[in-house]
Specification:
The complex is a heterodimer of chains A (about 180) and B (about 100). Chain A has nine helices and no strands. By secondary structure, chain A is mostly helical. Chain B has about 100 residues and is mainly α. Chain B has a domain at about 30-90: Helix Hairpins (Orthogonal Bundle), CATH 1.10.287. Chain B has three helices and no strands. Classes of the chains: A mainly alpha (about 180), B mainly alpha (about 100).
Protein backbone atom coordinates (compact mmCIF):
# COMPACT_ATOMS: atom_id res chain seq x y z
CA UNK A 1 0.00 0.00 0.00
CA UNK A 2 2.79 2.39 0.88
CA UNK A 3 4.44 2.06 -2.52
CA UNK A 4 1.11 2.54 -4.29
CA UNK A 5 0.11 5.47 -2.15
CA UNK A 6 2.99 7.59 -3.38
CA UNK A 7 2.67 10.24 -6.05
CA UNK A 8 4.61 8.01 -8.42
CA UNK A 9 2.21 5.09 -8.09
CA UNK A 10 -0.78 7.29 -8.75
CA UNK A 11 1.00 8.85 -11.72
CA UNK A 12 1.70 5.45 -13.25
CA UNK A 13 -1.92 4.41 -12.76
CA UNK A 14 -3.21 7.55 -14.48
CA UNK A 15 -0.62 7.17 -17.25
CA UNK A 16 -1.72 3.59 -17.88
CA UNK A 17 -5.34 4.72 -18.09
CA UNK A 18 -4.36 7.45 -20.55
CA UNK A 19 -2.44 5.04 -22.78
CA UNK A 20 -5.20 2.40 -22.75
CA UNK A 21 -7.86 4.99 -23.52
CA UNK A 22 -5.77 6.48 -26.35
CA UNK A 23 -5.30 3.02 -27.85
CA UNK A 24 -9.07 2.54 -27.75
CA UNK A 25 -9.52 5.92 -29.47
CA UNK A 26 -7.23 4.97 -32.32
CA UNK A 27 -8.59 1.45 -32.79
CA UNK A 28 -12.26 2.27 -32.23
CA UNK A 29 -14.95 1.53 -34.79
CA UNK A 30 -17.77 3.70 -33.53
CA UNK A 31 -17.19 7.46 -33.53
CA UNK A 32 -19.11 8.26 -30.38
CA UNK A 33 -17.43 5.49 -28.38
CA UNK A 34 -14.01 6.67 -29.55
CA UNK A 35 -14.98 10.15 -28.38
CA UNK A 36 -15.90 8.79 -24.94
CA UNK A 37 -12.50 7.14 -24.71
CA UNK A 38 -10.86 10.39 -25.81
CA UNK A 39 -12.58 12.19 -22.91
CA UNK A 40 -11.24 9.53 -20.52
CA UNK A 41 -7.76 9.90 -21.96
CA UNK A 42 -7.80 13.68 -21.52
CA UNK A 43 -9.09 13.37 -17.95
CA UNK A 44 -6.32 10.88 -17.14
CA UNK A 45 -3.73 13.27 -18.56
CA UNK A 46 -5.26 16.01 -16.42
CA UNK A 47 -4.72 13.82 -13.34
CA UNK A 48 -1.10 13.36 -14.47
CA UNK A 49 -0.71 17.15 -14.69
CA UNK A 50 -2.12 17.54 -11.19
CA UNK A 51 0.31 14.98 -9.84
CA UNK A 52 3.19 16.68 -11.64
CA UNK A 53 2.44 19.85 -9.69
CA UNK A 54 0.56 21.82 -12.33
CA UNK A 55 -3.02 22.19 -11.04
CA UNK A 56 -3.68 25.17 -13.29
CA UNK A 57 -2.84 23.17 -16.40
CA UNK A 58 -4.95 20.29 -15.11
CA UNK A 59 -7.93 22.57 -14.74
CA UNK A 60 -7.40 24.00 -18.21
CA UNK A 61 -7.15 20.50 -19.63
CA UNK A 62 -10.50 19.53 -18.13
CA UNK A 63 -12.27 22.80 -18.99
CA UNK A 64 -10.91 23.53 -22.45
CA UNK A 65 -10.01 20.10 -23.83
CA UNK A 66 -12.58 17.79 -22.29
CA UNK A 67 -15.18 20.53 -21.93
CA UNK A 68 -14.98 22.65 -25.07
CA UNK A 69 -13.06 20.88 -27.82
CA UNK A 70 -14.75 17.54 -27.25
CA UNK A 71 -18.17 19.21 -27.28
CA UNK A 72 -17.17 20.65 -30.67
CA UNK A 73 -16.53 17.08 -31.82
CA UNK A 74 -19.92 15.98 -30.51
CA UNK A 75 -21.65 18.81 -32.39
CA UNK A 76 -19.83 17.90 -35.58
CA UNK A 77 -20.81 14.24 -35.22
CA UNK A 78 -24.41 15.26 -34.71
CA UNK A 79 -24.25 17.39 -37.87
CA UNK A 80 -22.73 14.56 -39.90
CA UNK A 81 -25.49 12.19 -38.89
CA UNK A 82 -22.88 9.50 -38.67
CA UNK A 83 -25.20 7.13 -36.82
CA UNK A 84 -25.93 5.24 -40.01
CA UNK A 85 -22.66 4.31 -41.67
CA UNK A 86 -20.49 4.10 -38.58
CA UNK A 87 -22.60 1.90 -36.35
CA UNK A 88 -22.85 -0.77 -39.02
CA UNK A 89 -19.30 -1.75 -38.20
CA UNK A 90 -19.80 -1.68 -34.47
CA UNK A 91 -21.07 -4.65 -32.46
CA UNK A 92 -24.84 -4.75 -32.63
CA UNK A 93 -25.56 -5.57 -29.03
CA UNK A 94 -26.79 -2.73 -26.86
CA UNK A 95 -25.58 -4.58 -23.79
CA UNK A 96 -23.15 -3.74 -21.05
CA UNK A 97 -20.11 -4.33 -23.24
CA UNK A 98 -20.50 -1.10 -25.20
CA UNK A 99 -20.07 1.34 -22.38
CA UNK A 100 -18.37 -0.78 -19.74
CA UNK A 101 -14.89 0.28 -20.92
CA UNK A 102 -15.17 4.05 -20.51
CA UNK A 103 -17.17 3.67 -17.32
CA UNK A 104 -14.58 1.33 -15.80
CA UNK A 105 -11.67 3.65 -16.63
CA UNK A 106 -13.66 6.67 -15.45
CA UNK A 107 -14.49 5.04 -12.11
CA UNK A 108 -10.82 4.15 -11.66
CA UNK A 109 -9.86 7.79 -12.24
CA UNK A 110 -12.56 8.98 -9.83
CA UNK A 111 -11.31 6.63 -7.11
CA UNK A 112 -7.79 7.91 -7.65
CA UNK A 113 -8.96 11.54 -7.43
CA UNK A 114 -10.89 10.87 -4.21
CA UNK A 115 -7.84 9.13 -2.80
CA UNK A 116 -5.59 12.09 -3.61
CA UNK A 117 -8.01 14.62 -2.13
CA UNK A 118 -8.67 12.51 0.95
CA UNK A 119 -5.01 11.86 1.75
CA UNK A 120 -3.68 14.93 3.53
CA UNK A 121 -0.10 13.65 3.58
CA UNK A 122 -0.10 13.44 -0.21
CA UNK A 123 -1.65 16.88 -0.50
CA UNK A 124 1.14 18.29 1.66
CA UNK A 125 3.70 16.57 -0.54
CA UNK A 126 2.08 17.99 -3.66
CA UNK A 127 1.86 21.53 -2.31
CA UNK A 128 5.62 21.77 -1.90
CA UNK A 129 6.28 21.40 -5.61
CA UNK A 130 3.40 23.24 -7.16
CA UNK A 131 3.86 25.81 -9.92
CA UNK A 132 0.84 27.96 -9.31
CA UNK A 133 -1.40 29.93 -11.60
CA UNK A 134 -0.02 33.21 -10.25
CA UNK A 135 3.42 32.49 -11.64
CA UNK A 136 1.92 31.41 -14.94
CA UNK A 137 -0.19 34.54 -15.21
CA UNK A 138 2.70 36.89 -14.41
CA UNK A 139 4.88 35.23 -17.02
CA UNK A 140 2.05 35.08 -19.55
CA UNK A 141 1.39 38.82 -19.43
CA UNK A 142 5.04 39.74 -19.05
CA UNK A 143 7.64 38.20 -21.36
CA UNK A 144 5.09 36.15 -23.30
CA UNK A 145 2.70 38.97 -24.14
CA UNK A 146 3.52 38.80 -27.84
CA UNK A 147 2.74 35.07 -27.89
CA UNK A 148 -0.65 35.79 -26.29
CA UNK A 149 -1.41 38.37 -28.98
CA UNK A 150 -0.37 35.99 -31.74
CA UNK A 151 -2.51 33.19 -30.33
CA UNK A 152 -5.46 35.57 -30.26
CA UNK A 153 -4.86 36.16 -33.99
CA UNK A 154 -4.80 32.39 -34.42
CA UNK A 155 -8.13 32.00 -32.67
CA UNK A 156 -9.65 34.76 -34.79
CA UNK A 157 -8.37 33.05 -37.93
CA UNK A 158 -9.88 29.77 -36.73
CA UNK A 159 -13.21 31.50 -36.14
CA UNK A 160 -13.27 33.11 -39.59
CA UNK A 161 -12.16 29.90 -41.33
CA UNK A 162 -14.70 27.82 -39.45
CA UNK A 163 -17.49 30.19 -40.42
CA UNK A 164 -16.37 30.36 -44.03
CA UNK A 165 -15.98 26.64 -44.59
CA UNK A 166 -19.09 25.52 -42.76
CA UNK A 167 -21.62 27.97 -44.17
CA UNK A 168 -24.17 26.58 -46.61
CA UNK A 169 -23.25 26.46 -50.30
CA UNK A 170 -26.16 28.58 -51.51
CA UNK A 171 -25.08 31.52 -49.38
CA UNK A 172 -21.40 31.53 -50.08
CA UNK A 173 -21.09 30.19 -53.59
CA UNK A 174 -18.07 28.11 -54.42
CA UNK A 175 -15.37 27.36 -51.90
CA UNK B 1 11.69 18.76 -6.63
CA UNK B 2 9.23 16.38 -8.17
CA UNK B 3 9.22 12.69 -7.38
CA UNK B 4 8.30 11.54 -10.85
CA UNK B 5 11.45 11.11 -12.97
CA UNK B 6 11.57 13.11 -16.16
CA UNK B 7 12.42 9.98 -18.13
CA UNK B 8 9.10 8.37 -17.28
CA UNK B 9 7.17 11.52 -18.15
CA UNK B 10 8.91 11.63 -21.51
CA UNK B 11 8.21 7.92 -22.06
CA UNK B 12 4.51 8.55 -21.40
CA UNK B 13 4.60 11.51 -23.76
CA UNK B 14 6.30 9.53 -26.53
CA UNK B 15 3.92 6.61 -26.13
CA UNK B 16 0.90 8.88 -26.45
CA UNK B 17 2.50 10.66 -29.40
CA UNK B 18 3.25 7.40 -31.21
CA UNK B 19 -0.28 6.13 -30.59
CA UNK B 20 -1.69 9.33 -32.07
CA UNK B 21 0.71 9.25 -35.00
CA UNK B 22 -0.19 5.65 -35.83
CA UNK B 23 -3.82 6.68 -35.68
CA UNK B 24 -3.27 9.54 -38.12
CA UNK B 25 -1.38 7.30 -40.55
CA UNK B 26 -3.55 4.19 -40.33
CA UNK B 27 -7.12 5.44 -40.07
CA UNK B 28 -8.93 6.45 -43.23
CA UNK B 29 -11.86 8.12 -41.49
CA UNK B 30 -11.04 11.84 -41.31
CA UNK B 31 -12.81 12.29 -38.00
CA UNK B 32 -10.62 9.62 -36.41
CA UNK B 33 -7.58 11.32 -37.89
CA UNK B 34 -8.59 14.56 -36.17
CA UNK B 35 -9.04 12.73 -32.87
CA UNK B 36 -5.60 11.17 -33.23
CA UNK B 37 -4.20 14.65 -33.87
CA UNK B 38 -5.72 15.69 -30.57
CA UNK B 39 -3.96 12.79 -28.84
CA UNK B 40 -0.66 13.89 -30.42
CA UNK B 41 -1.03 17.52 -29.34
CA UNK B 42 -1.93 16.32 -25.87
CA UNK B 43 1.23 14.22 -25.74
CA UNK B 44 3.32 17.28 -26.54
CA UNK B 45 1.55 19.09 -23.71
CA UNK B 46 2.54 16.28 -21.33
CA UNK B 47 6.19 16.71 -22.29
CA UNK B 48 6.06 20.49 -21.71
CA UNK B 49 4.28 20.21 -18.36
CA UNK B 50 6.66 17.48 -17.21
CA UNK B 51 9.74 19.52 -18.09
CA UNK B 52 8.27 22.61 -16.44
CA UNK B 53 7.53 20.64 -13.30
CA UNK B 54 11.00 19.12 -13.11
CA UNK B 55 12.72 22.51 -13.37
CA UNK B 56 10.02 24.25 -11.31
CA UNK B 57 9.39 26.86 -13.99
CA UNK B 58 6.08 28.21 -15.26
CA UNK B 59 7.24 28.31 -18.90
CA UNK B 60 6.08 24.75 -19.52
CA UNK B 61 2.53 25.62 -18.53
CA UNK B 62 2.60 28.67 -20.80
CA UNK B 63 3.66 26.51 -23.71
CA UNK B 64 0.81 24.17 -22.81
CA UNK B 65 -1.67 27.06 -22.92
CA UNK B 66 -0.37 28.03 -26.37
CA UNK B 67 -0.74 24.41 -27.53
CA UNK B 68 -4.29 24.44 -26.18
CA UNK B 69 -5.05 27.51 -28.28
CA UNK B 70 -3.53 25.88 -31.33
CA UNK B 71 -5.59 22.72 -30.75
CA UNK B 72 -8.80 24.71 -30.43
CA UNK B 73 -8.19 26.63 -33.68
CA UNK B 74 -7.09 23.46 -35.50
CA UNK B 75 -10.17 21.52 -34.44
CA UNK B 76 -12.50 24.35 -35.44
CA UNK B 77 -11.05 24.60 -38.94
CA UNK B 78 -10.72 20.83 -39.32
CA UNK B 79 -14.30 20.11 -38.32
CA UNK B 80 -15.59 22.87 -40.59
CA UNK B 81 -13.67 21.31 -43.48
CA UNK B 82 -15.09 17.92 -42.52
CA UNK B 83 -18.63 19.32 -42.61
CA UNK B 84 -17.93 20.70 -46.10
CA UNK B 85 -16.48 17.35 -47.18
CA UNK B 86 -19.45 15.44 -45.81
CA UNK B 87 -21.82 17.72 -47.70
CA UNK B 88 -20.02 17.40 -51.01
CA UNK B 89 -18.91 13.76 -51.07
CA UNK B 90 -21.34 12.17 -48.56
CA UNK B 91 -18.45 10.39 -46.86
CA UNK B 92 -15.56 11.07 -44.50
CA UNK B 93 -13.14 8.72 -46.25
CA UNK B 94 -9.91 10.62 -46.85
CA UNK B 95 -9.18 8.61 -50.01
CA UNK B 96 -12.07 10.38 -51.74
CA UNK B 97 -9.98 13.53 -51.78
CA UNK B 98 -7.37 12.09 -54.16
CA UNK B 99 -9.10 13.89 -57.02
CA UNK B 100 -8.07 17.32 -55.78
CA UNK B 101 -6.30 19.59 -58.24
CA UNK B 102 -4.44 22.69 -57.24
Amino acid sequence: MSSFASIEGLFYLAATIAIVASLKVVTGKNTVHALLYLVISLLAVAVCFYLMGAPFAAGLEVIVYAGAILVLFVFAIMMFGLGIDETQNAPQSRELSLWIGPVLLGVLLLLELIFVIDNSELALQLNSQVVGSKQVGMLLYGPYLLAVEISSFLLLAGLVAGYHYAKPEHRGGRL
Amino acid sequence: MTEIPLTHILILSSLLFIIGFVGVVVRRNTLFMLMSLEVMLNAVGVAFIGAGSVWQEADGQIMFILILTLAAAEVAVGLALLIRMQRRYRTLDIDVLNQMKG
